[in-house]
Specification:
- With 361 residues, this protein is of the alpha+beta class.
- 32% of the residues lie in helices and 25% in strands.
- The strands form 3 sheets. Strands 1, 2, 3, 4, 9, 10, 11, 12 and 13 form a 9-stranded mixed beta sheet that branches. It has a 4-stranded mixed beta sheet with strand order 8-15-14-16, covered by helices on one side. The protein has a 3-stranded antiparallel beta sheet with strand order 5-6-7, with no helix packed on it.
- The two termini are 33 Å apart.
Length: 361
C-alpha cells in the first residue's frame, strides 16, 4: 500500500472541457487545498488506510494469497531542496497521527535503497515509512475472487450494469433490481436484498438519474511494467519520485512505474508521449535494471474526489450503498473499505474512525 496526501494530484494535466462536472470538481478541489481541510482529509485517509492494512494482513494470513507482497516500507525521495523542505510539514502531521513517516538524508536514502546509488549526487533527502507494504493488486484481487468463488459467490463477468430500478419515495424508497446486459448480450434484471455501487469513475453518471450527485471525476493514470533483467539493479523498496510524482514498485521479477493524471473525460487511449516519459525516467534512475524495450503500458481512470476521501456508506435509498471514489488510494484502502461497507450493509458499526457517507440522513 502507498500513501498520498489529500488535496494532491500526481503530475496533473487538465484539458478544460465544456463540462459542468469538471468545473465543479476543480472549484471544490481548490477549496480542499486549504491547510485545515487538507489536515482533516489526511486524517480521514490515514484512518481508513491503517484499518485497511490490518485487514489486508489478516486476509493474507488466513488465505495465503500470493501477490508479490513486500513489507520493506515505502520511501519518498526528493531531488529538489524546496520540495524536500515543503514535505516536512506533511511528514510531521502523519507522524503525529501514528504513521512513522521519518525524514532522512540522502545518504540514508541510498543506504535503504542501493538501486538509487546512481543518482546519489542529485538526491537531497527523503522520508521513509517502514510499516508500509507494496504488492500486485491485480494478483491479490484475482486470488481473493477465487477464494470467494470457492465459498459460493457468483461472479458475473463481461456483464454491464445499465440502470437501477426503484420503488417508493422518500424514506421508503428502495432499489428493486439492477438491469444488466449479460455476457450473451441479453438484457436481464438481477434482484437482491442490498446493492453496493463500486463503479469507480463511472459511479457518477450511473447514479445521477436517481438524484445521487457524486463529486467524482476521472483522472487518467498511466503505468508501465518492465521485465527485470538485473535484480540487484532494481529497487526492492516501493519508491515515490517526488519531483516527477511517479511510483516505482517491485513486483517479483517485474518493475512497475505509475503516475500522471489527465483530467480529460472518460477516454482510456494511450498517449505515447506520456508512455515514453515513464520509460525515460525509469531508465534514468535504474539504467541496468530492466528490459526497457519490452514495456507493458496501461491506463486506468482513477475515481478522484476533490478531497481524496472516498464515498463509503449509505444513500437515500434504504438498500443502496456506496464504496467508490478512492482516487489514487484504491489499493491502499481496498480491504478496509470493503470490510467497512460489509459491516454497514449488515447493520453493524465499522471499527474505524471515518466519516462515512449517509446521504439519506
Amino acid at each position: 500500500m502507498r500513501r498520498c496526501c489529500a488535496g494532491e494530484l500526481p503530475d496533473a494535466f487538465v484539458n478544460s472541457r465544456a463540462e459542468w462536472l469538471q468545473w465543479q470538481w476543480g472549484m471544490r478541489f481548490l477549496r480542499e487545498c486549504s491547510p485545515a481541510r487538507t489536515a482533516n482529509n489526511i486524517r480521514q485517509c490515514m484512518a481508513m488506510a491503517d484499518f485497511s492494512r490490518s485487514t489486508l494482513q489478516a486476509v493474507r494470513a488466513e488465505t495465503g494469497i500470493e501477490y508479490d507482497c513486500l513489507t520493506r516500507g515505502i520511501m519518498h525521495f526528493y531531488t529538489d531542496q524546496q520540495d524536500f523542505e515543503s514535505s516536512q510539514a506533511g511528514a510531521k502531521l502523519m507522524t503525529s497521527l501514528g504513521c512513522p513517516r521519518n525524514s532522512i538524508d540522502a545518504s540514508e536514502v541510498v543506504r535503504l535503497e542501493p538501486a538509487l546509488a546512481g543518482i546519489r549526487d542529485k538526491i537531497v533527502g527523503g522520508d521513509f515509512t517502514p510499516s508500509d507494504e507494496s504488492g500486485d493488486s491485480r494478483a491479490f484481487t484475482v486470488g481473493l475472487a477465487d477464494k470467494a468463488a470457492d465459498k459460493g459467490v457468483d461472479f458475473r463477468f463481461n456483464t454491464s450494469a445499465t440502470r437501477l430500478l426503484t420503488t417508493g419515495a422518500g424514506a421508503s424508497a428502495k432499489i428493486t433490481g439492477v438491469e444488466v446486459i449479460n455476457s450473451n448480450g441479453q438484457h436481464e434484471v438481477l434482484s437482491a436484498d442490498a446493492f453496493v455501487v463500486t463503479m469507480g469513475s463511472f459511479a457518477t453518471p450511473f447514479l445521477k438519474p436517481l438524484g445521487i450527485n457524486l463529486m467524482i471525476y476521472p483522472a487518467k493514470g498511466y503505468s508501465a511494467t518492465y521485465p527485470v533483467k538485473n535484480p540487484d539493479a532494481a529497487p526492492y523498496i516501493s519508491l515515490i519520485d517526488a519531483g516527477y510524482k511517479l511510483v516505482f514498485s517491485r513486483l517479483g521479477n517485474r518493475l512497475r512505474v505509475g503516475g500522471t493524471a489527465e483530467l480529460n473525460g472518460y477516454g482510456r487511449e494511450l498517449n505515447t508521449v506520456r508512455c515514453e516519459a515513464l520509460t525515460r525516467r525509469a531508465r534514468e534512475l535504474f539504467p541496468d535494471a530492466c528490459d526497457y524495450d519490452q514495456p507493458n503500458f496501461w491506463t486506468g481512470l482513477r475515481p478522484m474526489t476533490p478531497s481524496n476521501v472516498p464515498y463509503i456508506g449509505k444513500t437515500k435509498f434504504g438498500n443502496l450503498f456506496l464504496n467508490t471514489g478512492h482516487g489514487t488510494l484504491g489499493w491502499t484502502m481496498g480491504c478496509g473499505s470493503g470490510r467497512a461497507i460489509a459491516d454497514i450493509v449488515s447493520g453493524r458499526k465499522p471499527e474505524v474512525n471515518f466519516a462515512f457517507t449517509g446521504m439519506g440522513k
